[in-house]
């Protein structure tokens, strides 16, 4: 898609890619020039940091925050759902622009960018228990290709429209469900002194997307365990 820079599924904002220390993890979030989003105050469960994605020049391009129970990489073979979680992906709205080193061009970001990051990250967190490690990479490549195609066709039949509050304002989201969980993506209006919006993606399982709300995170350090 012209608006989404593809990254490998292993580099998406999934639990498998979390940084090894909470202190190191929050540093990346603090470097961002855009506001981070998470679930609003109606959610009272655990919150935790995942990982930020950075360009070669160190500019923060996107990141995710987790809510609920941290998903295991491999599901329970019994098929019993034990984890309830939702992750929120924040992507700053940016036009086509020169790269930091001046040698290339960075794609514009759109709601499809958020949909792609959320869809691929869901796959990293939830993959069939019957697959062994030798088959996992092939399965992941195939499924992430499908996730990319779906993100490039947000008006297609795979998606429905769901209205959820963002900072208290009803906002339309593209929404789809699969056997692995759910994915949604939408955009906010201009926020903060930068006067630019962000694109929001979210994914999860065990928690219904229909009752969620999103809001700006005033203090990202509240997502660091004490």
Question: What does this entry look like structurally?
Answer:
19% of the residues lie in helices and 30% in strands. It has 226 residues and is an alpha+beta fold. The chain has one domain (9-223). Residues 60-81 are annotated as: Disordered. Residues 67-81 have a biased composition (Basic and acidic residues).
Core attributes:
two-stranded antiparallel sheet; disordered N terminus; alpha+beta; 226 residues; 7-stranded antiparallel beta sheet
Beta-strand portion reads 25-35%
What is the straight-line distance between the termini?
A: 41 Å
Structural class assignment = alpha+beta
Indicate the percent of residues in helices. 10-25%
- With strands numbered from the N-terminus, the spatial order across the biggest sheet is 2-3-4-10-9-8-7
Task: Write down the domain tally.
Answer: 1
- Give, in order, the helices and strands: HEEEEEEHHEEEEE
Low-confidence stretches: 1-22
Radius of gyration: 17 Å
Report the total helices: 3
Shape: globular
Main β-sheet, in a few words? 7 strands, antiparallel
For the secondary structure, the number of strands is: 11
Biased composition (Basic and acidic residues): 67-81
Region (Disordered): 60-81
Task: Give a brief outline of the structure.
With 226 residues, the chain is α+β, with helices and mostly antiparallel strands.
